[in-house]
Amino acid sequence: MRSTKDITSKLPTIFVGIMLVFVLALSWMVEWSPDGKYIAGFAFTDTDEYNVIFAVNRTNGNLLRVTPPQEDQYKEILAWHPDGDQISYMYYGSDFQNDGTRIVPLTGGSPAHLVNMPDPMWDYIGTWGPDGKYYFVSSPRGAGNWALYSFDESTGDYEKVRGADDRSIGMPSWSGDGSTMTWHETQSTRQIWLLTDYE
């Protein structure tokens, strides 16, 4: 028998003096932490100009504010680092410029710059490889065409994994055992591609 439970019913409606419309945090993109202890998502508050990332403790419903109040960019597409202690996300300003990807500790603090590929490439939808060595990001290169890149956090280098001028590439995803990455490509038809043993 299936059962459902609303964990947001345990959450306070006021958090550090901020009224939360918390349903917005769970109606967008939400992501489980690798250890299954937290669920992260986006929310708007009545004191922040742009949206904020929060994490909810799966067991007790306690709420953590992850991104700081002074951050003044709109945020999308969050991804947990495999260590479960950090969250990466894409950001851009109100003019849809100055985009990039940041990473921030789960417990809050100052976000650090992660990816900022040279214009006109747009750092957009990404996910971590299972060992945390590479961050894989799908980025448009103009005219609606996308390519898939890998970013090495330790060196700051990135390289194209897959891309062509006649197709678009979607967000990558990893298999449960961490052995295979997959993504879809759209050309005249939509295809699913697999990648194994990336080094």
Notes on the protein architecture:
This protein is mainly β and 199 residues long. The protein folds into 2 domains: 1-116, TolB, C-terminal domain (Neuraminidase, 6 Propeller); 117-199. The chain has 1 helix and 18 strands. The protein has one helix at residues 23-27, and strands at residues 14-15, 18-19, 31-32, 38-43, 52-57, 63-65, 74-80, 86-92, 100-105, 112-115, 125-128, 134-140, 146-152, 157-163, 168-169, 173-174, 180-186, 190-196. The strands form 5 sheets. Strands 3-4-5-6 form a 4-stranded antiparallel β-sheet. A 4-stranded antiparallel β-sheet has the order 7-8-9-10, with no helix packed on it. Strand 12 (134-140) and strand 13 (146-152) form a beta hairpin. The protein is globular and about 45 Å long. The relative contact order is 0.10. Mean pLDDT is 76; it is low at 3-27.
- Quaternary structure annotation: single chain
- Describe the global form: globular
- Count of extended strands: 18
Which percent range describes the beta-strand content? 35-45%
Please give the structural blueprint.
Layout: E1 14-15, E2 18-19, H1 23-27, E3 31-32, E4 38-43, E5 52-57, E6 63-65, E7 74-80, E8 86-92, E9 100-105, E10 112-115, E11 125-128, E12 134-140, E13 146-152, E14 157-163, E15 168-169, E16 173-174, E17 180-186, E18 190-196
Antiparallel strand pairs: 1-2, 3-4, 4-5, 5-6, 7-8, 8-9, 9-10, 11-12, 12-13, 13-14, 15-17, 16-17, 17-18
In a few lines, what is going on in this structure?
The protein is mainly β.
